[in-house]
Amino acid sequence: MAAISSVLLQLCSSGGHVVASTTLYGGTYALLSHFLPRTCNITTTFVDITDHEAVKNAIVHGRTKVLFFESMSNPTLNVADIPELSKLAHEKGITVVVDNTFSPMVLSPAGLGADVVVHSISKFISGGADVIESAVCGPVRLVNSMMDLHQGALMLLGPTMNAKVAFELSERISHLGLRMKEHCRRAIEYAIRMKELGLLVVYPGLEDHLQHQLLNSMANKGYGFGGLLCVDMESEERANRLMHHLQNSSQFGFIAVSLGYYETLMSCSDSSTSSELNAKEKALAGISTGLVRMSIGYTGTLEQKWSQFEKAISRMRDSSTLFEIEGFGIRGLIEPLESTDITLKHLLKLFHGSGPPRHPWSRPMISLHFSDK
Ligand SMILES: Cc1ncc(COP(=O)(O)O)c(C=O)c1O
Ligand SMILES: *[C@@H]1O[C@H](CO)[C@@H](O)[C@H](O)[C@H]1NC(C)=O
Ligand SMILES: *[C@@H]1O[C@H](CO)[C@@H](O)[C@H](O)[C@H]1NC(C)=O
Predict the structure, then answer these.
(1) Which residue's CA is minimally distant from atom 5 of ligand 2?
(2) Residues with a CB atom less than 6 Å from ligand 2
(3) What pTM was estimated for this model as a whole?
């Protein structure tokens, strides 16, 4: 946040305007929508950055100073078209600031046209979830202006990195590439397998992701498609139950809001890292209540960890009730709290999603009878 706030304060003066993506980390969203307008009269128009016409239309001649977006959005994993967005911003004389926290090594926004790249170092770059730091990468002129004795946001607000921490971080940069490759290798493998289990998976490495081709065209070869994936469990209750089993029944990962750690971290974005957005803003950003964000770690072997995932899923099933639709040869599972308002469509979906039960006779069973309606 120090990187983001300092660079925005450096590039914008009172009365200035920012055009930003509707889907941003909750803290960045709060900075732009609440803090900067109140304290500095710097206002922001939020737009869907996949809609380039909307971005153009939001730019106010003479007032807009910055176009701000995340290369891969938190938590929805939309991928920004960095070359196109940079081109249209530059045509209007606007500085492009990209938050690349989700995709170090995978994407190099500066090489794709961005003017300034910011990173939360607390995530993948640190890799240890043990420091809270950030970085601004930009032209020498900007960096020098940020350290100006009279006008520099870094000089005057003082978010200076501790020299010992800086040294320690510099020792981790050389294996960032290796770490990213392994985060990405496991993320895509799990994304494929989770999809095969019938889960609703969002991962930019999958061909069904809207910006898969775009990411492929921008990504540095050999690193993969990012270490984060999302699973939409369709309700907060199911999201929490899945995370509970993944943490407490099988040790697949930890329920925690950070990312980029060597262990897998999971959070329900709606109620945690995106809680700064109200319901309408979350809907615009595409954040549903059951969305589970997973930052895939790399401890243990891939197969060991996957068997923990499967164990958690089967535990989740074990706490559910078997149903049978007589005369149709259909059997499936109803999960707790979902058994009140059941339609045939719902049952078929559950049946489809959960697959055949493993131990069909070991649990209570209900039978359903349908009239010809
Ligand atoms: C995309 C993104 N940018 C910035 C931040 C802020 O980082 P920090 O907590 O290191 O200030 C976060 C934190 O989650 C993030 O996800
Ligand atoms: C804030 O900026 C706008 C746009 O430049 C200006 O019209 C307005 O007067 C400013 N408000 C304050 C309180 O300075
Ligand atoms: C779940 O696991 C975590 C981490 O190991 C532990 O701190 C917590 O107490 C456990 N919670 C329950 C309800 O078992």
Answers:
(1) 15
(2) 15, 41
(3) 0.88
